Amino acid sequence: MAEKQDKKESPLSDKEALHIAETTDVSPGQAKELAKKHGKENAEKEAKNFKAEG
Predict the structure, then answer these.
(1) What whole-number distance in Å separates Cα of residue 40 and Cα of residue 9?
(2) Structural domain includes residue 47
(3) Is 11 helix (H, G, I), strand (E, B) or coil?
(4) How far apart are CA 52 and CA 54, in angstroms?
(5) What's the pLDDT at 50?
(6) How many C-alpha atoms does 51 have within 13 Å on its Cβ side?
(7) Can you give the residue range of the structural domain that contains 21?
(8) Domain for residue 28, yes or no?
(9) Interatomic CA distance for residues 4 and 10, integer angstroms
(10) CA geometry: angle 46, 7, 14, nearest 5 deg
(11) Fewer CB within 10 Å: N-end or C-end of the chain?
C-alpha cells in the first residue's frame, strides 16, 4: 500500500514558481527549493524572508 505523500513533498509547478519569483524577487529555482524545504503553502512566505535576510 502506497504511503500518502507529505504536503512538503508536493512539487511546486513551474507556474507557481514563476509567480513566487515575480512577487518576491527570488529565482523560480530558488522558489522550488524553498517549497521542497518548507512546503508548498509556506514557499512564498519563506521567499520573502529569504530575500529580506539576503
Answers:
(1) 8
(2) yes
(3) coil
(4) 6
(5) 81
(6) 15
(7) 12-53
(8) yes
(9) 11
(10) 65
(11) N
Let me know if residue 41 belongs to a domain. Answer: yes
21 lies in some domain: yes
The per-residue pLDDT for 26 is 94
Q: Which three cell numbers stand for residue 7?
A: 504536503
Which residues make Cβ contacts (< 8 Å) with residue 34, sequence separation at least 6?
20, 26, 43, 46, 47, 50
**pLDDT score at 1:** 41
21 φ/ψ angles, rounded to the nearest 5 degrees: -60, -40
pTM of the predicted protein model:
0.74
Tell me how many domains the chain contains. 1
pLDDT digits (tens, 9 = 90+) for 2-45: 444 444 456 899 999 999 999 998 999 999 999 999 999 999 99
Q: Evaluate the CA torsion angle 15, 39, 11, 2 in order and state its sign.
A: negative
